[in-house]
Amino acid sequence: MTSFKILTLNTHKGFSQFNKRFVLPEIRDAIRLVGADVVFLQEVQGEHQLHSKSHRERWPTEPHYEFLAESLWPEFAYGRNAVYPHGHHGNALLSKYPIKSHENHDVSVAGHEERGILYSVVELPGSGTRIHTMCVHMGLAEDHRRQQTLLLLKLMAEKVPADEPLVIAGDFNDWKLQVHQKLTAEGGVAECLGTAIAKPARTFPVWLPVLRLDRVYLRNAAVRNASVLHRHPWTRLSDHAPLLVEIEL
Question: Which residue of 87, 118, 159, 193 pairs with 91 in a disulfide if CB–CB is 3.0 to 4.6 A?
Answer without folding.
Answer: 118
